[in-house]
Amino acid sequence: MYGADIIARMQQSSDRRAGLGLALASALAFGGSGVAAKPLIEQGMDSLHVVWLRIAGAALVLLPLAWRHRALVRERPVLLAGFGVLAVAGVQAFYFAAIARIPVGVGLLIEFFGPALVLGWVRFVQRRPVTRQAAVGVLFAVTGLACVVEVWAGLGFDPLGLLLAFGAACCQCAYFVLAGHGTDAADGTAPHPLGVIAYGLIVGAVVLTVVSRPWNLRWSLLGERAELGGMRPPAWTLIVWIVLVTTVLAYLFGVLAVRRLSPPVAGVVACLEAVVATVLAWVLLAEHLGAAQIVGGALVLAGAFTAQLAAPATGSGERGEPVAGNVPRPRDEERPAPADAPPPGQPAGR
Q1: d(Cα 202, Cα 88) in Å, to the nearest integer?
Q2: In this structure, which of 10, 219, 259, 263 has its CB flanked by the most CB atoms within 10 Å?
Q3: How far apart are CA 136 and CA 74, in angstroms?
Q4: How many CB atoms lie within 10 A of CB 153?
């Protein structure tokens, strides 16, 4: 019995290490999306067209998963529609539109204000109490956000770009609120996260097709070369990177990570996405942030950490685990999830 207990603990430790590695890989993958997309936008491609290529390409890759979980269309149509419109199309469209006007790191840091907005929803809309720790997290996030946008200078960045980034944060918040209703089946089972992700991408691709009108896309731009950190890779290789690495692999790594970790722990690791994106933008795009933005970014991330770890517990008999990840790249604020629980957040910027 003692030997079996030791083996079980060793297995648990091994799973945790593997989970941390996968969560880190997911954060790294999500963090590279904005840096790869911005050269395409600066080359002349519309930001909505870049988003459409990303989401439609990922949806095409994940079609086999969608077919495998096709029962979800009948069982959870509202959930799939909400996830596709908000956590996929909404977050990505707002984020990519924002980074066309403001630095990648600033856009993603503002998006990470989403967990703080969730606590505002809980307190003022649902009228449920939040802990003092959660309030401190919101205070950190608000203070950090003020530093990031340099409010004392009359907003140090393009106001419309900042508004678009805040729209991404609101969509991320809406995803978290929606996610709390994703595991309310009578038998206590949750919809499979991979199925939700696959159909979310399909719904997002359909919505973005209507909004972005890809038939006006300048396809010839994909054959040209883009400027990225002194290199000139073909534009189509950046699209392949965005689709396969920063979307498909990022989501899959996130799912596998949260199955080995609690959602709060996976969410904290996912916050490294903002650090990764900021550093890559600094190195490859020469988007240097000042001391105020760096300090503010640290405060925003500290607030996101606290907001995720201090979210109020669900009531008796309720289930609050998210149904799927993101975006990123979310950013869970719920308690430990079952075996089929998804990755934290939306990628967001991702």
Answers
A1: 9
A2: 263
A3: 42
A4: 9
